[in-house]
Design a protein that fits this description.
The complex is a heterodimer of chains A (303) and B (141).
Chain A (H helix, E strand, L loop, with lengths): L1 H31 L9 H10 L11 H27 L7 H9 L1 H12 L3 H32 L4 H6 L10 H17 L11 H4 L10 H25 L9 H21 L6 H25 L2
Helix pairs in contact in A: 1-3, 1-10, 1-11, 2-10, 3-4, 3-5, 3-10, 5-6, 6-8, 6-12, 8-10, 8-11, 8-12, 10-11
Chain B lengths: L2 H8 L2 E6 L5 H8 L13 E2 L8 E5 L4 H13 L5 E5 H6 L21 E3 L6 H15 L4
Parallel strand pairs in B: 1-2, 1-3, 3-4, 4-5
The chains are: A mainly alpha (303), B alpha/beta (141).
Chain lengths: 303, 141
């Protein structure tokens, strides 16, 4: 049964929804810039094309690490997406799966760092070093923000967090709103989108850690990014909006919440310039951590 | 036509290489990305890394210094890949035909799939060239 969950929900459903999300992202970006934008199947074309291309391994690169890094990343995303789907629809989960989810969500960043350092390219090493600093910067406020629903529901089980929002979602409280704002900005950094696309600044260090990847390796990294683009908003919906509710009129609400979070991320991405790495670290360790701590204190007070 | 090639024609990612052009062709190429022309409609993207590219867009007259770099880059493109020569200089060396610095035209160095003439070619001409490229391989838009 676990295999079915992993393949059908963890991989297939997440990948399809992730590709749709990346199309929404590109289309909204195009519309913001008064362009027409790519057709609906564009992410699929990109993926199939990349899978058919040649893999170039740079001379002197660590071959095994270079090739295995994308696989590590995508398996992390598949595992965490399966955890969310199963908690959402099928079972009670297990004690402490919130902690497992937080750990697994860090694996894609680690795989990018691994691939960047393995590819023996100065730009890739630079990008990987920046990614590492960015991970250190955003993990603290992200965990603090994700702690608020745990305090509100008195449980570190995702299914209990979902169930305890049946009466009213956590995004309705003051603490929930503050934590949601922090979490959305951290998701922005986790997805490495502008203004926090410092690791893979395309115009500066040409895609950073994935500069040397071509063919299937690049395809897996792109798919991993797209799946993460679905999984992270899904995590926020579980934490702050009571999960995906598919009964009656709630379907509309769920779609609205999901598309709304994606649209906010896309609009932030399109209206901001890239910051430097020191500015990003200061931003996450300063105001963001403070807001997250205030949210945690308010949640402890029961607000 | 194989699935590989079909998908490639649906999302050709372009790497833009100037081999000593006067910058006019480069400016006109970048114009294709602007809202008026928007080649992302056809799935085309400008990529920064040669390892991600499917189409090598060459402008300029291939002078002695840049030919070595161009050969190196052509070897690094993951195959299958296509080459487009933008502008008169890349197509036939133009006014630099008798120059000491441009001994060989581009198509004597690497295989070129499509020539887009003009000094510089208009963005419409570049898009028409892209359509010709796709039709030559056998696809439709």
């Amino acid at each position: 049964m676990t295999i079915v969950y992993l393949i059908v929900f963890g991989f297939a459903a997440t990948a399809i929804l992730g590709l749709i999300t990346s199309w929404i992202d590109r289309k909204v970006t195009a519309r913001v810039q008064y362009r027409v934008g790519p057709p609906f199947l564009q992410p699929v074309y990109d993926l199939v094309k990349l899978l058919g291309k040649e893999t170039v391994i740079p001379a002197g690169a660590s071959k095994v690490t270079f090739l295995i890094a994308p696989v590590i990343g995508i398996s992390g995303v598949i595992a965490v997406a399966t955890l969310f789907w199963v908690n959402q629809f099928f079972s009670e989960g297990f004690m402490g799966d919130w902690i497992v989810a937080i750990y697994l969500l860090a694996i894609p960043s680690l795989s990018i760092i691994l691939g960047g350092f393995a590819s023996r390219n100065p730009l890739a090493s630079l990008g990987a070093a920046r990614e590492m600093k960015l991970v250190i910067a955003y993990e603290l406020p992200f965990i603090l923000a994700a702690l608020v629903p745990v305090i509100n529901s008195h449980s570190i089980r995702l299914s209990v967090i979902i169930d305890s929002q049946a009466g009213g979602v956590f995004a309705g409280n003051i603490s929930g709103i503050l934590a949601l704002i922090v979490a959305i900005l951290c998701v922005q950094a986790k997805l490495a989108l502008v203004p926090f696309d410092i690791p893979e600044a395309e115009t500066e260090i040409v895609e950073g850690p994935i500069v040397e990847y071509s063919g299937p390796g690049l395809a897996i990294f792109k798919l991993m990014k797209n799946m993460l683009f679905f999984t992270l908003p899904f995590f926020l919906i579980i934490l702050f909006f009571g999960g995906l509710r598919l009964n009656g009129i709630n379907i509309l609400w769920t779609i609205l919440e999901y598309v709304g979070i994606v649209a906010i991320i896309t609009v932030i991405r399109n209206t901001n310039p890239r910051v430097r790495i020191d500015q990003a670290v200061r931003f996450f360790w300063g105001p963001m951590t403070l807001i997250a701590i205030v949210a945690v204190i308010l949640a402890l007070k029961g607000l | 036509m194989s699935l590989k090639l079909k998908a490639l024609l649906k999302s050709p990612w372009v790497f833009h290489l100037s081999t000593g052009s006067c910058n006019n062709c480069d400016i006109e190429t970048l114009d294709c990305l602007t809202p008026r022309f928007d080649i992302e409609r056809f799935g085309m993207l400008l990529v920064g890394s040669i390892k991600h590219a499917d189409v090598l867009l060459v402008s300029g007259s291939c002078n002695r210094m840049s030919v070595e770099r161009m050969k190196e880059l052509f070897e690094q493109v993951p195959k299958p890949c296509l080459v487009v020569a933008i502008g008169t200089c890349a197509g036939s060396r133009g006014i630099f035909k008798d120059s000491y610095n441009c001994p060989v035209p581009l198509d004597k160095i690497i295989p070129v799939d499509v020539y887009i003439p003009g000094c510089p070619p208009k963005p419409e001409a570049i898009i028409a060239g892209a359509v010709k490229l796709i039709e030559k391989i056998g696809g439709t838009l």
